[in-house]
Design a protein that fits this description.
By secondary structure, this protein is of the alpha/beta class. It has ten helices and eight strands.
Length: about 280
């Protein structure tokens, strides 16, 4: 039986004290342990930024990709061995900025992975520049007169692009976030969780106290109702809803590949008996 302590690599964690990322990685460890997943069957992928350190702090397989390319790497891993549980961790800038197209295309394909976005509404690692989710007219180190761009709505985009599990969590509520991660891991299809993550160093305005006052939990919501999910995603009032907005089981890209490769995943094929001497000779 896997325990949470088995997933602790016991390194020094290089996040600021009080960072919301601690809650996210703890929820991941807790979810993996409670689902009794074998760590050797789990791959944690990340991009660049504060969230990019996540694979270093959970004792599974891990891959830290270049900026904005985490989802593309995750797709390669999952298609080469669909038996793996693949968890992508990206920052809001990493995913909603430079990596936006990879994210949209893989939601459209309904790739079977769990994607956790660490959304602190700022470029934290590079000292507080405006990010795609920074509120309109917010003053940052790159927008001293106010951010002139309206923020991107990640949940609305995920719903329109084809993700079949769309949720919002909060890094300060470990139990609720753990349940969302567990549900996302068990979902077949693209499971996306936008996690409100306080950055106590570069954006203290959106603190733990702020989120306690400006969030509420979804109750009596039917997650199969996509129209209602879109309506909830568009809420711009004083409080943001937390929970599962949408969940559906539909065709996944893996259904297509399973029909073609019914024996073994690509990563399990023996490539050592393949003779490529004719190909080499042709190009030399």
């Amino acid at each position: 039986m896997v325990k949470m302590e088995d997933l602790d690599p016991h390194h020094w964690i290089q996040w600021c004290p009080g960072c919301g990322n601690f809650g996210i990685v703890t929820a991941m460890r807790k979810a993996i342990a409670e689902l009794e997943l074998d760590p050797k069957d789990v791959v944690v992928v990340s991009g660049i930024g504060c969230s990019g350190k996540t694979p270093h702090y959970i004792k599974t397989y891990g891959f830290e990709a270049i900026h904005g390319r985490a989802v593309a790497v995750a797709m390669g891993i999952k298609l080469s061995n669909p038996q793996l549980h693949v968890i992508v961790n990206t920052g809001d800038g990493d995913n909603y900025g430079i990596g936006l197209n990879h994210w949209i295309q893989n939601m459209r394909r309904n790739l079977d992975i769990l994607h956790i976005a660490h959304n602190n509404h700022i470029y934290a690692l590079t000292k507080g520049q405006a990010a795609p989710t920074t509120p309109f007219m917010e003053k940052t180190s790159s927008t001293p007169h106010g951010n002139p761009e309206k923020p991107l709505n990640p949940l609305l985009l995920a719903l329109s692009a084809g993700a079949t599990f769309v949720a919002r969590g909060y890094a300060g509520d470990l139990q609720h976030l753990t349940e969302l991660v567990k549900e996302g891991l068990m979902h077949r299809g693209y499971a996306f969780i936008d996690v409100l993550q306080p950055c106590v160093s570069m954006y203290p305005k959106m603190s733990y106290d702020y989120y306690k006052e400006h969030t509420y939990y979804l109750k009596d919501h039917d997650p199969s109702n996509k129209e209602k999910a879109i309506e909830l995603a568009m809420e711009e009032g004083d409080k943001l809803p937390l929970g599962v907005f949408y969940k559906a089981q539909t065709y996944s890209i893996h259904d297509f590949y399973e029909d073609i490769h019914q024996d073994l995943p690509a990563s399990k094929h023996d490539i050592y008996d393949i003779d490529i001497s004719d190909i080499i000779e042709e190009y030399l």
